Amino acid sequence: MLIGIILTLVICGLPSMLLLVDLVKYLISGRRLYNTKVAYALDVAGMMVLPIFFLIFDEKTNDCCSDSATFSPDHRLTINILVGICIITYFYSRLKGNLRSPVIEVLINAILLLGFVFNIFIAIQVGSLYWLFGNIPVGILFLFQLIENHKLFLELNKAGQPKPERQFENIAWNILNKNLLLKIPLLFIICLPILTMIASLLLIFGQKPDSIIRAFTDTYKHGFSELNHLCNNVQCGGHFLCSIAANGHKEVVKPIRYGVRNGSLIICNRQLLVANAFEELIEQKLPKAHKVIRKQYNKIGSAIHRHYHIFNNKLVSDCIYLLMKPLELLFLLCIYCCDVKPENRIAKQYLKKLDRQTLSKLENKPWSLNSEG
User: Fold this and answer.
1) How far is CA 181 from CA 127, 151, 178, 318, 334, in A?
2) Which DSSP symbol is given to 365?
3) Radius of gyration of the chain (CA)
4) Which residues pair with 269 in a beta bridge?
5) Which of 127, 234, 266, 269 could cysteine-pair with 223, CB 3.0–4.6 Å?
6) 16: helix, coil or strand?
7) Measured between alpha carbons, how far is 165 from 237 in angstroms, rounded to an integer?
8) SS3 state of residue 261
9) CB neighbourhood size of 162 (10 A)
10) Which residue, 171, 199, 198, is CA-closest to 88?
11) Three-state SS at 212
12) What does the DSSP 8-state code read for residue 8?
């Protein structure tokens, strides 16, 4: 992601600044600052860099333990199609020259407005400085084209272009002839059937009617994300048994107490405590072997956490708990064979550091914990 950030700052930063200056000049004088070739180059740079960045550098999966997908992997096709339609419409409107029929012009302007609003939602979803370098140029270009189309229609209307006779075209002509304050709300209304039609067509490709919304919400750690709660019990780089103890049926996984890991409160059951005690034993007795084992386990744990949502199903957690039972007994046997006080080692797992130190001092006392003196 570091490479992606650097490329974004360098490649996207320049078009963003140039287009911002261009917009200020355009609003003051009604003319763009740059000549046609430079303006077209800025159009391509400003409009295409952000989609290319997401295609190449954005994460493809939801992941609690690292950078997560900006849009839900299951609904990303809807986002890609919608972005593609907006970009194609922009360049068509930019290069078409003369106005088309009133109905076509209304559709073009509605999609341009849709692209502008959609770009704002993407900026909120990204939730970082990417919007400054990626979303601002896109928004400026959509605004440019909407204003240009409006000015061009008014100029042709003043030149005496005849009003269409067909009722449908006449309605579209009246929409185009409205003041911007009235025209924009009408175009918003027209966006709704356009989105409905796109969503209906995408049903053929396995998308859902609400995929446009769920693409934003079915994600982790982004602007509109609603699945952040699935990461609450994830201990990244640690035992995935933490997830089982937290999410399984209590009657099966048998949680016994709370523990602390990396400053976070976790639920502990016997299986988790035994597994961690076994790892601690291996680390003390065979440190080199522990490093190799831990490195491989981290790879497995990383792969598991990419699909952490499966642990949200209690039956899945129950099944994994039962499958791990033979390993738990093997770990327990090793601990009892190699440790003088095996249950003390197990009991100390996932306690606060101060509590562990206190218990260790008590263990070294010449009297037992149960003595009356």
Assistant:
1) 30, 14, 8, 59, 77
2) S
3) 30
4) 255
5) 127
6) helix
7) 70
8) strand
9) 6
10) 198
11) helix
12) I
Q: How far apart are CA 227 and CA 247, in angstroms?
A: 16
Predicted confidence pLDDT, tens digits, the chain (373 residues): 455 555 555 555 666 777 778 777 777 877 777 777 777 777 777 777 667 767 766 777 777 766 778 899 889 999 999 999 999 999 998 888 777 888 899 999 999 999 999 988 988 888 766 666 667 788 888 888 898 888 888 887 777 666 777 787 888 888 888 888 889 999 999 999 999 999 999 999 889 989 999 999 998 888 899 888 777 655 555 556 666 666 778 888 888 888 887 777 778 889 889 988 998 999 888 888 888 877 777 666 655 655 655 666 778 888 888 888 898 999 999 999 998 889 988 988 888 888 777 777 776 665 444 433 3
User: Which phi and psi angles does 152 have, rounded to 5°?
Assistant: -65, -40
At 341, which amino acid appears? K
251-281 burial, b for 16+ CB within 10 Å, e for fewer? eebebeeebebeeeebbbbebbbbbbbbbbb
Q: 3-class SS at 268?
A: strand
